[in-house]
Specification:
CATH superfamily: Peptide deformylase
Number of strands: 7
Distance between the termini: 23 Å
Structural class: alpha+beta
CATH class: Alpha Beta
Order of helices and strands: HEEEEEEEHH
Radius of gyration: 16 Å
Length: about 170
């Protein structure tokens, strides 16, 4: 089931999310809903607070090549264990900040530990777009948006655009 995506500024997007104590069928259903919502948007990542659930859960799939098999990842309690000294800059966007993009510099590679939808502990090193995406989504779990990496003027300009968009949507 597709879920509505919260649009910035929404106070829930600035909250630190609680860990998932143990997996339930409801949480697995939430993960499935989040994947459906992300693919439909379309996006490459989605965090639970973006659909109004303040739990440490992200989904992502950075496979973009035409005809390539999708690689949906469901991560409960994801945690960055190590980050490279090398950095990479990508133009980031966010489903909660539609049609706004900015270059953000982050570590080029990260080691991440998480619990998968079957309750198994997983560990993987991500680089490139996957590393950027997982860091962006984990930021969401800590109440941080990609615009928080920008200068104050640019951040305020984007926030004002989102406030205007929300007013327009409320009138529609």
């Amino acid at each position: 089931m597709k879920r509505p995506i919260l649009i910035h500024p929404d106070p829930r997007l600035k909250k630190v999310c609680a860990p998932v104590p143990d997996l339930s069928d409801d949480l697995r259903r939430l993960a499935d809903d989040m994947l459906e919502t992300m693919y439909d948007a379309p996006g490459i990542g989605l965090a639970a607070p973006q659909v109004g659930v303040l739990r440490r859960l992200i989904v992502m799939d950075c496979v973009k090549d035409e005809g390539a098999a999708p690689r949906p990842l469901v991560m409960f309690n994801p945690e960055i264990k190590a980050a490279s000294d090398e950095v990479a800059t990508y133009e980031e966007g966010c489903l909660s900040i539609p049609e706004q993009f900015a270059e953000v510099t982050r570590p080029e590679a990260v080691d991440v530990a998480w619990i998968d939808r079957d309750g198994q502990e997983r560990f993987e090193t991500f680089d490139g777009l996957w590393a950027t995406c997982v860091q962006h989504e984990i930021d969401h779990l800590n109440g941080k948006l990609f615009i928080d990496h920008l200068g104050a003027m640019r951040r305020q300009m984007i926030t004002r655009k989102m406030q205007k968009l929300k007013r327009e949507q409320a009138r529609a």
